[in-house]
């Protein structure tokens, strides 16, 4: 104990630049332990430059500017207690959504560099909705992961990442409702196929939609859009009930029985 105290006392005499170099070699746990020794050491250990690589190693898609004013130390401390899958899922959803927002209706490049426009979000047909649909498929896979994390740890819903997740998903419901509805309708094909793989795929897809409905993730969307999503989900449930191959599907691994959509 005396040796540990002597080392801590010695480190308080070192200049900040040298301490930063030493601390940059430590793990997150060691940094946290060091910051508990002394006010001076705590101030140096909280330097955001050291926490950026630690944060990105754990959450590769993290962006401290979005919720934490560029403070990587605050980001790490806020995320560390959460289920690992939740920040990863929220980051992925934001990345995919941001790309779609930047495109603003341009989803690809056609022959000779011509732009290919997406179908209107307000309805109508169009043969150029493939890329937004694939993007939303990715978003919903991550929504399923985020929903599972929320079911296991209610603290998730008090985070800045949760608020950002709601904003991203509301954007899809508001600006790309056709894509959201197409995702739900696509599960009918899996039911019609009747294969084990198809039914398993349908289960997570319907569960992801349930998270949208039950966790308030579309709170900012227009009521007409939410009603349309609810109606499509109800049609899917009836298709499940009437399918001889399906019966009543069990909850996927990790989904609490009380949280499963199919009662």
UniProtKB/TrEMBL annotation:
Residues 8-54 form the F-box domain. Pfam families: F-box-like (PF12937). Signal peptide: none annotated. This is F-box domain-containing protein. It comes from Chlorella vulgaris.
């Amino acid at each position: 104990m005396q040796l540990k105290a002597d080392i801590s006392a010695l480190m308080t005499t070192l200049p900040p630049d040298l301490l930063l170099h030493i601390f940059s070699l430590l793990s997150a746990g060691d940094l946290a332990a060091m910051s508990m020794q002394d006010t001076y050491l705590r101030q140096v250990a909280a330097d955001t430059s050291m926490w950026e690589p630690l944060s990105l190693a754990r959450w590769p898609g993290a962006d401290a500017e979005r919720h934490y004013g560029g403070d990587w130390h605050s980001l790490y401390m806020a995320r560390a207690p959460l289920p690992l899958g939740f920040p990863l899922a929220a980051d992925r959803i934001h990345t995919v959504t941001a790309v779609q927002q930047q495109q603003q209706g341009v989803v690809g490049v056609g022959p000779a560099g011509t732009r290919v426009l997406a179908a209107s979000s307000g309805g109508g047909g169009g043969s150029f909705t493939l890329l937004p649909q694939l993007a939303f498929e990715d978003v919903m896979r991550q929504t399923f992961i985020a929903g599972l994390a929320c079911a296991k740890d209610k603290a998730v819903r008090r985070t800045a990442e949760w608020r950002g997740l709601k904003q991203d998903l509301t954007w899809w419901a508001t600006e790309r409702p056709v894509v959201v509805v197409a995702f739900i309708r696509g599960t009918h094909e899996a039911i019609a196929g009747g294969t084990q793989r198809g039914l398993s795929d349908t289960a997570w897809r319907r569960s992801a939609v349930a998270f949208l409905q039950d966790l308030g993730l579309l709170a900012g969307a227009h009521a007409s859009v939410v009603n349309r999503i609810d109606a499509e989900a109800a049609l899917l449930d009836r298709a499940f009930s009437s399918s001889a191959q399906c019966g009543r599907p069990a909850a996927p691994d990790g989904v609490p029985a009380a949280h499963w959509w199919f009662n």
